[in-house]
Amino acid sequence: MPNLLNNYMQAASVILFGIGFMVLLLNNNMIKKIIGMNIMDTSIFLLFISIGFIDGKEAPIIVDAKVSGLGYVNPIPVGLMLTGIVVAVSVTAFMLALTIKLYETYGTIELDEIQMIKGGKYDT
Questions:
Q1: What is the DSSP letter of 69?
Q2: Closest among 91, 80, 96 to 30, alpha carbons compared
Q3: Which of 16, 26, 29, 85 lies most in the core, judged by the most C-beta atoms within 10 Å?
Q4: Which residue, among 90, 108, 111, has the nearest Cα to 27 in the 3D structure?
Q5: Cβ count within 10 A of residue 13
């Protein structure tokens, strides 16, 4: 139990990832699937940023050139997560565009209804 309390950010990210994964798996609505995917993305960002944080160190913004690099946190995890956020927003926009095309084509965004319209076999 003490390990869980000390690593509560990592535990929260795992719980968020599980929630997003279940939303992604258990819903037929495309918008809900996109929301589940975004929850999973956010949990990964939370995990990496919480791992990269070091208590007592500062952000790597150098104001005085005389300060050594030992007093700063590693900027690589934050930079990677900023890149990840940009990629996640782009993927979300692409998925929303595809969802709009699905709605224009089939008149619904429910995957089970689309499969029934296409004549495919649907098992509940």
A1: G
A2: 96
A3: 16
A4: 111
A5: 22
Residues 6+ apart with CB under 8 A from 109: 29, 30, 31, 99, 102, 103
Confirm if 52 and 77 have CB atoms less than 8 A apart. Answer: yes
Q: Which residue's entry shows tokens 């300060």?
A: 67
List, in order, residues 6 or more apart from 53 with CB less than 8 Å away: 73
Both structure tokens of 85: 């956020």
Tens digit of pLDDT for each residue in 6-47? 788 889 999 999 999 999 999 999 999 999 999 999 999 999
- How many CB atoms lie under 10 A from the CB of residue 108? 16
Could you tell me which residues come within 8 angstroms of residue 20 by beta carbon, excluding any fewer than 6 positions away?
36, 37, 38, 39, 40, 41, 42, 43
